[in-house]
Each structure stands twice: as structure tokens, then as C-alpha cells.
Amino acid sequence: MFYRIKLSETEHWLEKGTFGKTHTDERPFSCGTCGKSYKHEKNLFGEKPFSCGTCGKGFSQKGYLTHHIRTHTGEKPYSCGTCGKSFSLSSILTIHIRTHTGEKPYSCGTCGKSFSQKHLTEHLRTHTDERPYSCKSCGKNYKTRNGLSYHMRTHTGEKPFSCGTCGKGFRINSQLRVHLSAHTAEKPFSCGICGKGCSQKGTLAVHMRTHTGEKPFSCETCGLSFIRKSGLRSHMRAHTGERPFSCVTCGKSFAQKYSLTCHMMTHTGEKPFSCGTCGKSFRLKSRLTDHMTTHTGEKRFSCGTCGKGFHSKDSLNFHMKIHTDENSKNYAYK
Predict the structure, then answer these.
(1) How many domains does one find in the chain?
(2) Would 226 be classed as within a structural domain?
(3) 239 pLDDT higher than 50
(4) Confidence (pLDDT) at 25
(5) Handedness of CA 89, 93, 94, 95 (dihedral sign)
(6) Distance (Å, rounded) from C-alpha 277 to C-alpha 285?
(7) Which has more pLDDT, 35 or 92?
(8) What is the DSSP letter of 283?
(9) Are 282 and 273 in contact (CB under 8 A)?
(10) From CA 80, how far away is CA 97, in angstroms rounded?
(11) Each residue of 69-81: pLDDT tens digit?
(12) Strands (E), 126-181
């Protein structure tokens, strides 16, 4: 049986099927225009008769409202029998229990990789390169909703993950975890060549490339290679002209976050790098390094034409102007 119902300028046909099967995947209410199906009639019409008394948000079903209210009350009625951790939804508890059992019921038909949560759809995009989530600010596309959320914080400046020791904020929780090791000084991963200790296994893997010379991340435009993926991302902006880091004071944009950090100091007057000999302060660590050579007498930069030495790279570049031969414009770093 079908019902014909007028909604605004669009006609929808409601198919009456077998109702009450909320635990099956049956969707008896279908839209005659687009074909999309729903389990409940109110979903088809966009009706939200159940409202939250705290924030006013509306819901199509009473169960959804019940779940939502727990975000205000903090109620977590579903507890894990293994570790005692509690959750607001039974579905989240089910997913959590798999961290104890090791169950991974969702498998990729392409590579066979299994997942403990319903992340299979997102994983499949690593094979198809589909990027359905777009940034409204810059148009950049992402494979996952979380990826887009993390990216949006580069525009908003939001850093919701804070270090309890020093107060430093981070956009992503994983960045905070890496940072925390700086306070504990724990570095369990050591380089077998030079003995350098690293707090993360991934950090050690990147460090090893400084010995092997491996640069696995290559630019498809110019062929330049990089040790880190972040280095390639930063380099790509030289081709695209993208400048995602903007100054909230004057609006000036930068391709690199570090460049924005240095620029902000021109507004704040901050000079965090001080000379231990004379007390002079600098905005950049590299400027302090150059300055220190005025005390030590070291001249790290040499002219490839006449051999004259200089304390800083800027001084060498200025000197090079006296040599008119363009081919001689190179310098050796001692």
C-alpha cells in the first residue's frame, strides 16, 4: 500500500510495510523522489518532536533524546566487566570490549586488513583515494571526518589538548602524547649508530634516515625528496602557493607555522633567545647562534671566491655582492 503526501513543492510517496522491526535493517518508509529509505515515518518528514529541556535540541526519536541527555548529566550506565570503564552508550561499550578480546570483525576485501571498529569505510578510501570531506575555508579535501576536524583547527587556532605540566596546547591528542615525553625525559628507543635516544619508535625511525640518507617522500612536481612527510607537505606549498597560517593581528599569511610564530613576535615584542654572555635577546634561535660567534670569534661562513670568513650567513651574502661573477656565488659551511 502507498500513501501520497504533499511536502512543500515535492511529492513523496510513503510505502507502508511491516512496522516495529527496529532491530532489523528493514526500512519500510521510502521517498518517492530520491528513493532514500527510513525505518521510521518521522525521519522521512524531518519531524523532531522530542526536545532537550536543557539546550533545546530536537530529536526524531525518544531514544536519541535519552542518549543526548547523558551529555548533560554525565551518566554512563554501561560498564565494562573487565576494566570497569563506563560508557554512555551500549554500542560504545561493545566497541571498547574488543580492545580486551582483540576481536576485529570488519575486514577489507582489497588488502584483508581487519578493524575492531566500524572504520572499514574510511580505510577503503586509502585504496580509492576518495576524499569526501572538504574544508569550507581553503577547499582542501580529506578522507576522514576526523582529518577534516584536525585541519580546521589550523584555521581556528583551536588547541583542545593541553599539557598538565607546562600548559602547552595541541591540535591533536597524539601530539600531546609525544610532548609529554619531553617532561618525563624517558627515551627508551636508542639509535644503534650514534646512541641518540628517542621517546617514540617512529621518531627513531625518522632519525635513522639521517644516517642512511633515505628520503622516502618525493615531490611529484619537481622530484625533490624529504626525510619526513611533514617536510614534503611544507614544500608542496611552494608549488601551490597555499598559506594556511594567518596572523590574527594583521592578517598576514604564511606557508609555514614556524614563520607565523616568528612573525607574531613582531607584534608581541617577545625575544625568547638570550645570550648568556652579554644578555642580548633575539626572536630567532638562529640569530642567537650567529651572535654567539661575535664572542667566540668563530667564522662559520666562508666566501668561495676569496676565502674571507664571516660570523653570519647574512654577512656573507652581503659580501658576495662585491664579486660580480655570478658563478662564484657559493659559500662553504664549515
Answers:
(1) 2
(2) no
(3) yes
(4) 64
(5) positive
(6) 15
(7) 92
(8) S
(9) yes
(10) 7
(11) 888 898 999 999 9
(12) 133-134, 141-142, 161-162, 169-170
